[in-house]
Amino acid sequence: MFNIHSYKKKVFYLFFIIILLVFIIGIQYKITSFEKVQSKELLYLPNEKLLSHFTAGLDTVIADLLWIHCLLYVGAEIHGDFSFEWLNKMLNAVVQLDPYFREVYRFGSIFLSSLRADSDAAIQLLHRGMYYRPETWDLPYEAGMIYLLNRANEPSSKKRAGLYFAMSSATGKAPQFVIDLAEKLNHEHDLIEIERDMWSNLLKSEDKLLRDLAERKLIMVEIKQICRELTFRVEKYKQKYNKLPEQLEEIGLSSDSIKDPLGGKFFISKSGKVENTTILDEQLERNKHLIENGIKVFSERYGGYPSNLQELLDKHVMTFLPEQPYEDREWHYDPKTGSLSSRVRE
After folding, report:
1. Which residue, 344, 345, 332, 346, is CA-closest to 292?
2. What whole-number distance in Å separates Cα of residue 213 and Cα of residue 281?
3. Does residue 153 form part of some domain?
4. Which whole number is the average pLDDT over 143-158?
5. Which of 34-38, 152-156, 316-320, 322-326 shows the lowest mean pLDDT across its residues?
6. What is the C-alpha separation between 82 and 75, in angstroms, rounded?
7. Number of domains observed in the structure of the chain
8. Domain range spanning residue 313?
């Protein structure tokens, strides 16, 4: 009897809370509809810090209801004033009740950054989510995308994005494209230690394919480290002799002193950087695949191949064209067949 009584009591509380919330929200809709309201401090929802005291232990249930209401609010604003004035407050109310609500962190950050154009609030929401849900790959990924898209003009935006993508990859659950993106940005911004830690964490994965990939990538990290150290030697040589060495032997290395376990070769580029064919060939294939995928999407969308690669950008099929990793090569595109290849620059 005690259990039945307790159950009925909880149902009564839930019903009462729903009616109360509907009443409060209805009243506040009425209030915000008046044009002569001067105070901008009116609350669209009860204070999120006090809300949990009125839920009778049903925090997650009320959080679900508020999230649904938040989605309805976003839809109404898209077709209405497009101001999203109460969005951040509504999201904070939901995660105050249920701090483990993953979807609210992810989609809420997208709403804040893309609809309200408030990347600061979006990052704060994602940081809160990463604290409570550190095992998720998508929250640091969304933070990285905000730095790539919404904060692209900031000097350190790509570096910060690389850090977040590395965090995402380190969970061992991120899709391959996130891992590729993390590797690319960390390589571009010389974040070798971060990249090494990322792949070391993936060595612990239960997925054998991921472990095998991590082993190969850790070797490639060491190759990048060798390239960096040899480039430093080349710079010292140039300062001393006022010219670039043509061969690695000129900086005191024999052909057998450095070897690539993956079969690639080290060489000095025209700009004076020491490069490795294993690294460059992998980048070449990845970049080539991205462009070929763009050509395919263009063909499916417009019924034909683009007349040139620039058209992929003009028609917004791609947001950027991946670079040719070899300094002395360029992309060769045939608009008749839609084929893409790499050739020595003329």
Report:
1. 332
2. 16
3. yes
4. 83
5. 34-38
6. 9
7. 2
8. 245-344
Higher pLDDT, 210 or 165: 165
Distance (Å, whole) CA 306 – CA 316: 12
How many other C-beta atoms are found inside a 10 Å radius of the C-beta of residue 187?
17
Closest CA to 228 of 187, 282, 173, 185: 187
Alpha-carbon distance 152 to 15, whole Å? 47
Q: What is the DSSP string of 259-320?
A: --TTS--EEE-TTS-EEEHHHHHHHHHHHHHHHHHHHHHHHHHHSS--SSTHHHHHTTS-SS
Strands (E), the chain: 266-268, 274-276, 329-334, 339-344
Q: Do 170 and 201 form a contact (C-beta atoms < 8 A)?
A: yes
DSSP letter string over 57-77? T-HHHHHHHHHHHHHHHHHHH
pLDDT at position 39 is 35
Inform me whether the pLDDT recorded for 2 exceeds 80.
Answer: no
The position carrying tokens 């009860």 is 46
pLDDT in tens, 53-85: 555 566 777 788 888 888 888 888 877 777 778
Domain boundary among 221, 254, 273: 221
Using CB atoms within 10 Å of the CB of residue 326, give its burial: 0 to 12 exposed, 13 to 18 middle, 19+ buried.
middle
The CATH number of residue 163's host domain is: 1.25.40.10
SS3 335: coil
* Pairwise CA distance, residues 344 & 346, whole Å: 6
Give pLDDT, residue 199. 76
pLDDT in tens, 263-306: 999 999 999 999 999 999 988 887 888 788 889 889 988 999 99
pLDDT at 334: 95
